[in-house]
Design goal:
Layout (H helix, E strand, L loop, with lengths): L3 E2 L23 E8 L3 E9 L10 H5 L2 E3 L2 E5 L5 E4 L1 H14 L7 H14 L11 E10 L11 E11 L10 E6 L16 H5 L2 H9 L4 E5 L7 E4 L2 E7 L2 E4 L10 H12 L4 E3 L4 H9 L3 E8 L3 E10 L2 E4 L7 H14 L10 E3 L2
Parallel strand pairs: 1-3, 9-10, 9-16, 13-14
Antiparallel strand pairs: 2-3, 2-8, 4-7, 5-6, 5-7, 6-18, 7-8, 10-11, 11-12, 12-13, 12-15, 15-16, 16-17
Helix pairs in contact: 2-3, 6-8
The structure holds pyridoxal-5'-phosphate.
The site of pyridoxal-5'-phosphate has 14 residues, from strand 12, helix 6 and strand 15.
């Protein structure tokens, strides 16, 4: 399928590259492709960024049949444009689609769409260290019917947003609240899918954690509320006596691409990785015994976000003196180095735009 390109006749003024606030500014163009049951996916096109016309009866507004992804494009010192693990993001989009009864999208076509769109808007990619172009692919059900069933029409779209360095003032550890009232996901649910409803359902916990002075929550399992799962919209790692622990992929947590990258790099460093369930009791016990050396969250936005403090009921655990740990720093440097082209891409994670 040929991707058609209609360029804007009215380019926007580029934002101040020193003051980019995450997810607030969008580029000049967007990608759209439609789906109908009889035709499959059709009419892939790049058009000027702008509002959509949807009827109030549009299904996504009522039953949230939608999925999304998040990845980034980086500009190297030499001016080359690189995407990180894009195939993996598009495969994960299809896993989410499968769960939400959304038709699959050809991975190669989705990759081509993103590459073409990023090329059209390449002047929007900031160049300074730590900056990037955030890519947000998403799919919505668009039937104009209010009845609970899978939509028979969809739109797959991609929008782009230049983002500044997550760590302008250096990497700062965060305070994380162990959530024991609300749950994010349950076995058999949609926890492993990147679908809007998961995030709408998490807002209240995040809001209450902020009111208590914490920046995010650590989710526990939805059945027993005792096993550690993930942090906000990131996966969680704990270094205990030199061994890395992270929760296994059993359907309730998101299979983060940064999580997978981190596991690969930890193993390369000779660090044992245990993808096993462990309880929050155990975690606090490790801390009391002085064995909890480092803790960090992983995700596309921040890459590595060290956890400096955990709050749980009336307990507080300060981790590594509220400083970033050696392993966390090394993983951060390795991932960002591969992304921005200063380190070798041994695992073929990079797709370069020609
Ligand atoms: C997106 C996301 C992650 C991190 O995934 P990455 O691919 O590393 O960005 C982790 N948990 C949740 C709930 C997420 O939505």
């Amino acid at each position: 399928m040929e991707i058609t390109i209609t360029k804007t006749t009215n380019p926007k003024k580029k934002p101040d590259k020193n003051n980019l606030v995450f997810g607030t500014v969008f580029t000049d163009h967007m990608f759209i492709m439609d789906y109908e049951e009889k035709r499959g996916w059709y009419n892939p096109r790049i058009v000027p960024y702008g509002p959509l016309q949807l009827e109030p009866a549009c299904m996504v507004f009522h039953y949230a049949q939608e999925t999304f992804e998040g990845l980034k494009a980086y500009k190297t010192k030499e001016g080359k444009i690189q995407l990180f693990r894009i195939q993996d993001n598009m495969k994960r989009l299809n896993q989410s689609n499968e769960r939400l009864c959304i038709p699959k999208i050809d991975v190669d076509l989705a990759v081509e769409a993103i590459k073409t769109l990023v090329k059209v808007d390449q002047d929007w990619i900031p160049k300074m260290e730590g900056t990037s172009l955030y890519i947000r692919p998403f799919v919505i059900g668009t039937d104009n019917k209010i009845g609970v069933r899978p939509s028979s029409t969809y739109k797959f779209m991609v929008i782009l947003s230049p983002v500044g360095s997550y760590y302008k003032e250096g990497i700062r550890p965060t305070k994380i609240y162990v959530e024991d009232k609300y749950v994010r996901a349950v076995p058999g649910g949609v926890g492993y899918a990147k679908t809007g409803g998961n995030y709408a359902a998490s807002l209240k916990a995040q809001k209450e954690a902020k009111e208590k002075g914490y920046s995010e929550v650590l989710w526990l399992d939805g059945q027993q509320r005792k096993y550690v799962e993930e942090v906000g919209t990131s996966n969680a790692f704990f270094i205990v006596d030199g061994v890395a622990y992270t929760s296994p992929l059993q359907g309730s947590i998101l299979a983060g691409i940064t999580r997978n990258t981190t596991i690969t790099l930890l193993k390369e460093m000779g660090i044992q990785v245990r993808e096993e369930r462990f309880t929050v009791d155990q975690l606090f016990q490790w801390h009391e015994e002085g064995k909890l050396e480092e803790a960090f969250a992983t995700g596309t936005a921040a890459v590595i976000s060290p956890i400096g403090q955990l709050g749980w009921k009336d307990k507080v655990a300060i981790i590594n003196n509220f400083e970033i740990g050696k392993i966390s720093q090394k993983i951060y440097d390795s991932i960002t180095g591969i992304q921005n082209g200063t380190l070798e891409d041994k695992y073929h994670w990079i797709t370069q735009l020609s």
